[in-house]
Here is the input.
Amino acid sequence: MELRAQKVSLVLAETFTISRQSRDVEEVVHAQLEHDGIIGYGEGAPIDYLGETQESMIAFLEEEAPTLIGGDPYAREYIGRRLAMRPGERGAKQAIDSALHDWLGKRLGEPLWRVFGLSPTSPPTSYTIGIDTIEGTIDRTRRAGRFQVLKLKVGGPDDLERLQAVRDNTKARIRIDGNEGWTLETARDLMPVLVEMGVEFVEQPFPVADLDSFRALRELSPRIPVIVDEGCQDLLDVARVASYADGINIKIAKAAGIREALRMVHAARALGLQIMLGCMIESELGIAAAAQIASLVDYVDLDGHFLISNSPFTGLGFRDGGVVASAEPGLGVRPE
Here is the structure.
């Protein structure tokens, strides 16, 4: 197998702000895995809060990964175990895993969702509205009319006013994402209003290590469900989350690929957890990997490719508010 990697800049259509940071460009990495004349493509997004960067991903893919993956693209379990022995660089591993799966589907001549025995369609995706002024939030909400679900980033001083502005300007279902930006006091103050407004759930309201706040919030009644994102990286975290929250947000980048994400889905089902399938800011290549398994989950947040102005890959569909995986072989997307 020949593995190649390149840096790619995804330019955001608008400045994207969450409780931790703002950005206008997302730097990702694309991998090409070639074997027997077939090229599998994969995209990896760096997990910034784990210290990953585009440069560290490239270094791993060029210097370490070729030895770890060996020469047989069918040996996905072996490759997965070898990669797992090397801590870190989940985004780079995501790119490898996606390229391997794309190669396999192309070799079989089938889309991956069919290989897995799944469906190309899934629940409607949410569309993310970053932290903004009240006026900016209203403008973004009105321009998101084709989406059935909106996810509002919170963690700023005007959370309640912005939430009310969204509710007043759309009939879409609403979810909120704190990105670790709340305190327990904030959550307690807002919870009655969130319940009254019919907000579906709150994602990662508190810092990962603040389990006391998660457990205290769980005692409130009534309350909306709590979904854990930053606090649930891979399979080892799933059972732990079940002790203090209602569900998990699985991201292919955090899980280091489709293989581990599927394991997380089955573990979460066994533990009675709700499952959300999310994304980083990614192109259609990265989103396509998640779309292959999106029919397995309760909630979908696969909007990364809608947030960027350039499209290095194309092929995904959009119907009835949801992302539709292609019927073409592999991940079903192609270079633009």
Notes: The first helix runs from residue 54 to 69.
